[in-house]
Amino acid sequence: MSANGTAKSMKAIVWEGKPFQMAVKYQPMPKVEDPNDVVVRITTAAICGTDLHTYRGLSGSKNPPWIMGHESLVLSLGIVSQLEESTAVTAIIVSAASKAIDDFGVDLGGTQAQYIRAPFADSSCFKLPPGTEHDLDYVLICDIFPTAWYALDCSGFQPGDSVAVFGAGPVGLLCAYSAILRGASKVYSIDYVQSRLKKAASIGAIPINFTEGDPVTQILAREPRGVRRSCDCVGFECLNNELEPQEDVVLKNCINVTEPTGGIGLIGEYLPPTGPTPGAPLSTGKEGIFPVPIGLLWTKSLSINGGIAEIRRLQPILQDLIESGRAKPSFVIDEILHSLHDVPDAYKRFVARQIGKPVIHLPHPNSDLDQRGDGVTNGDVTSQDLSI
């Protein structure tokens, strides 16, 4: 950045490879690098459970620093974008079906910032109707609502099925919610955080606290044959009944609780082992490697499917449900932040399970709120500028 103030910069949440620390930093403004790119202003962004894997130092690119985030609504500005001025679009995790290979965050620059460059905008962005009524719902179709819906698809779900959803974080709650929307006969929500279980009960799910007894035993007492479908919405950072890390426990519980010929949806994150790197300094190099009771899986004729969700395919379906009034996924949001400077503390409370789904609402560049210090700046930055 030049000292004469001609180079623009923006504020962003940056991971620097330090576990349990996020920083507010000035970063270079993104630029259009390809005719299919757009550069857009973030208005609403979310912190995702996936971001916590990075925050804990367990996963990420080999080479920090990078800007965090992959869920956002953006305001398209004509001066930096090929899209129509003042049109709301979503910046999404790019699905495997699109031309882009990498997710937002790490390699492309994340969405917990004031601006992002969205490559291959024809497939990574889509326009939303005018108005802000559904903004908090729309930000969730960037990732976690489609992911939750996809978990049911992977399990082979059909209307009338009984479902056990392991994990009642935002994705798990939305998976239980999706099952109810799609006509499940019963939905069990398994977790230990009381606020999560209370929210699960509020949408009609049956809460199961796994610290009060083996969750499989608790469910089988109600469903002697087991449930028809089960979904792993936890991933590799799961805990056993003693609240100790046990990476295989949720998958084993899914196999044990699912009735013969039933199905398992696996959308909790399991990563190939990479070993400690500057971007994942606390990785053991053994993540994703554990024994599976394949004999029981086979003898019960269970099917299992999972992986990264087909986000882009599902977005129009979920958008229609939101606009028709049938779906209101924003019930999982329990805190709205109004400045990037509030985000590092929100990460601390999110990882401690003190909040369930924080969302960042950034002001329009011409609003009074920008005077708090979240505006784009020109010129050099001092340490005083970054005080939080």
UniProtKB/TrEMBL annotation:
Gene3D superfamilies: Medium-chain alcohol dehydrogenases, catalytic domain, NAD(P)-binding Rossmann-like Domain. Residues 35-129 form the Alcohol dehydrogenase-like N-terminal domain. GO terms for molecular function: metal ion binding. The keyword NAD applies. InterPro entries: ADH-like_N, GroES-like_sf, NAD(P)-bd_dom_sf. Residues 363-388 are annotated as: Disordered. Belongs to the zinc-containing alcohol dehydrogenase family. This is GroES-like protein. The lineage of its organism: Eukaryota, Fungi, Dikarya, Ascomycota, Pezizomycotina.
